[in-house]
Amino acid sequence: MPELPEVETLRRGLEKESVGRRILSVVIANPKVLKGQSEVEFRDRAVGKCIVGVSRRGKYLFLPLAVDSFSSPSFTLCLHLNMRGALRLKTDEEPLGRYGVLRLGLDEGKSLHFDDIWGWGECRIAVAGESLPELGEEPLGPSWDRREFARRLSTRRVAIKTVLLDQKIVAGVGNIYADEALFRAQLAPTRAAAALTESECERLAESIWQTLTEAVAQGGTRGDYVDLYGQVGSYIPQVYDREGAACPRCTAPLKKIKLGGRGTTFCPVCQN
Ligand SMILES: [Zn+2]
């Protein structure tokens, strides 16, 4: 599942390739991704509009749409890849592939393909200013408040790993980077969030920031996820999905357990 670094990699690609482009056509192969919006309304709001920016919040991408590059946006294209969605930049001749759900034909011979093997992703166009999904603090944003993060943790009695996956607490952290950040902070994923001390919360906040920043710099985690151009990322997790491998810090074998229904890998020796 694409997490913050993978979506940020996409945002950077989109900023370069789509800002200033006009949407000329829309092909919808699977209306499920419109999340209830009618095809007619989607088309009406999209066709003829100019993409005037790209922002990201957690795992969401927002593309403001305006009549031209100098006007204020009237709509916002909201994208979420969910488990298996992918965005690819193609030429305008290329038809949608086998798992293609939506295609935006842009000017200058480009097109944006939304592929989604399960069709769980989201692609809809909201009126600009309409309230967007409720999300927690954005850990790479300039306003990330570590004290507020610590305060939110102190109210939760469940395992810290489970709390990190709650998008209302930290937007954009999923299974990979939750395991990685906890390893970096040397905290056991099973600890109750509320039991963390102030300095542990501070260490965790710093670890989340460092882990995400490193992963963004490397274009996301190496795996089956690809960027706008079909390239894979180069971040290699230290513990995530490495059950039985030697801990990179103390060489003890890494252990995998289930927490809140999610596979969780950690070092039982140096994460306390
Ligand atoms: Zn260890």
Describe the model:
- With 272 residues, the protein is an alpha+beta fold.
- It has 2 domains: 4-127, MutM-like, N-terminal (N-terminal domain of MutM-like DNA repair proteins, Alpha-Beta Barrel), CATH 3.20.190.10; 146-266, Helicase, Ruva Protein, domain 3.
- Helices cover 24% and strands 22% of the residues.
- The protein contains 6 helices and 11 strands.
- It has helices at residues 4-17, 39-46, 146-153, 160-164, 175-184, 198-217; strands at 23-28, 50-51, 55-57, 60-66, 75-80, 85-91, 100-106, 110-116, 122-127, 255-259, 262-266.
- Strands 2, 3, 4, 5 and 9 form a 5-stranded antiparallel beta sheet that branches.
- A hairpin with a 2-residue loop joins β10 and β11.
- The radius of gyration is 20 Å and the shape is elongated.
- It starts with a helix and ends in a 6-residue tail after the last strand.
- The mean pLDDT is 94.
- The structure holds zinc ion.
